[in-house]
């Protein structure tokens, strides 16, 4: 029968005839045959399977073998022996084992084994599965499988072997060491797999072969968990190799999906902290893992890549992250073209770009490729493409927001994505804050380093340089004045070494540095008033006033100087001297409507109209003054109890009876008036345990106060908490000038009783209010602090008197020759009477609270300053004059201007509902934390020595603000682009900071075993006083009896 079959398959008969005869041969297997006949049929069928020249012969061999082995199992068991299988696996032919000689495999390439041999062995095992002899074959295959994988078989053979072992797991190597060696060798084999073609069918076959191998490894890892970690160690050893002669296959990506995600934290933590892993090896490994994104069927590759990136950031190995990002960012972007790997590539691209925040270099590498990709996906119109484009557009918008100032690069992109949704500014900031390398942390690093990058707020603190909290709190309040900050950052100050340039530099670093806290040494030295003693506590209000005056006068000086003189002849010292000289000369307001206003005037200047009416002849004198802040005295309780908004008589009498305020200090940027540190103010019932002399005098300050006997006012002490509105009403209340403070009337040519009224006729963009909390004690010769709590309204309505016609002509006449430091009788004598009767149009202009500077302590010479602030920006398009028709300020009758009857509660309620989107921040030198408006309101109630001192209010619904869109439309709702030299300086410092952090982390990691990982985290607002800097600090520690201290 075997001869017939052999002659048939090699004959030239038609294929159909051959099939019929083969069917007869297969059917004859049921008839009894002798042993030699069965063996002859087994040998022939084996030869056809392994050596058949065409598929027909190989198919005939399989059919015949299966039929005869099933009906003659004993004979097949005697034929399919251990020796036969061993000979086949060692590359020898199917002849009698005794005649087979060992084959000599090529060195390093393994035996010339045909995958058909494994097919044949698998078929034989299936036929003998119920026979005892199969156990011997299993034992043989356990040994041979380990040998075969050790000889690095090519992908087709290795895949076929893994299929066999998957179907017969009894053939897998047994014991921990053989199983571990087998797994590690399989990992090495995958690393050497290479595809043999580029056509789709060939690639699909290659992917299928790799999948068979990785699936077997997954089964082994599941059955033998001890083999997983050593296998992964072998995997990392391969991809971290720096041998340039060998490049591991991306097929290794197929293993990642089989690693349990629960192991990410442990594995990445162990890997990134292992001192034996060199930077070069880690860089190589990470690059190759990113290459794995090209593998089409692998899952979770992006998860592991991102986890490793975060792990390296957590241990501050920034050099590796920078090198890998710059090397691979374009490759990752190009993977977005391929649908199968696009989701993973986009996830990795997003993380790499958003975390690379110290320099635009990485983003600018992919910028040239964005437009082409966007247009391609816009044209195909697939739903998946639309969703992908939205994600890509959000990523690109975030990066252009963070690195604005490159219109030539970004304008084509803006045009391409103009129809796609754009995230709002708050979302962009949140994404950037959460993604930065310095926001990554782990438990080890939190123990090792106190400063590990910006806090979760995304804001930057200011380092205390030695009792400089007074400056830090003011600078943070100015920085959070959004429109002012954007103006400063948008100025073109190249070639100018001015104070404004230094402020721009400071603001730029606060906005873009990666550091948790910035040291403003250069700005401090440039902005410190000359009479301020270094390293001693100072008055933040006095510093703020000096700073704004300096900036104003400097800008005027620079505008007056020619550009050539400024660039060629002016160094910093000569510029300061020029500013000082100019300041001495400018003794009257010179910025009329015909002159361009300075930035300080645009942002902070308002105007007060002082009116004095002689009660004898009824003649009236006017004087218009500019101010940058209003100093509000504490009103006595009698004022709060007797105030009647419909009666100006009650107001004037109440103010006169309780405190005669001859002149209220008004600061102007046009005049260099430096107020003395010792303002004199008494307020009965506020310092109940401090004796105050009623006859206080202050020859150096423009604020003079006179109080009645302390005992006579005790009856007016009220438990009610005054509000800022009450203090403002008291400030604007009419005042009767009588007795020693009579007014010299030129018309009467004698001293007369008069009524003095101050009215705000032009409101500033930012209203700065200083609460006069420090009173001079002549007995002790110190300034004591008024510790009364003051209610801070979220919305403040400022009464503004508008005149028709304008008071420009009046101010031009009466301000001539006046010195703003004149007070009392001198001021009255210089005011000229006027019979002009103007028609007033009263308005209540709404302001929203922007910042609060808090003083913690009981004396101006000691204590601590910190500030609360939030981002409040206007929506108006440009800086310009006030447009009454467009103003949304609330207008009320004259009688209600100071009554507090306007519907503020409704506005506050609306704002309170939006508090979630308008977060408050607590700036306490180096520390910046989230807080709430409730914490701001309750600070004095919780910590009696912590009191609001300087308030910043922003005008609402203003049309006089900086535009939120530049000419090229590249910074909508964001800060303007930085000048190139500023961006370069920040990029350089960010790189330096990352290197410092990395060096520190590596040094401390070596000492981690012996280091103590205990530290006291910052307390919450409700637990610890924000102003506390030490055991005797700020508030809450020892109540009123705590000894005051300086701040370090």
TrEMBL record:
Classification via Gene3D superfamilies: Cysteine proteinases
Keywords of this entry: Hydrolase
**What's the domain of life for this entry?**
Eukaryota
Q: Where, by residue number, does the polypeptide cross the bilayer?
A: none
Q: Which InterPro entries match?
A: ARM-type_fold (IPR016024), Papain-like_cys_pep_sf (IPR038765), Peptidase_C19 (IPR050164), Peptidase_C19_UCH (IPR001394), USP (IPR028889), USP38 (IPR033840), Usp38-like_N (IPR049407), USP_CS (IPR018200)
Q: Domain USP spans what residues?
A: 460-956
Q: Name one GO molecular function term.
A: hydrolase activity
PANTHER family on file: UBIQUITIN CARBOXYL-TERMINAL HYDROLASE, UBIQUITIN CARBOXYL-TERMINAL HYDROLASE 38
Under which name does UniProt file this protein? Ubiquitin carboxyl-terminal hydrolase 38
- State the taxonomy lineage: Eukaryota, Metazoa, Chordata, Craniata, Vertebrata
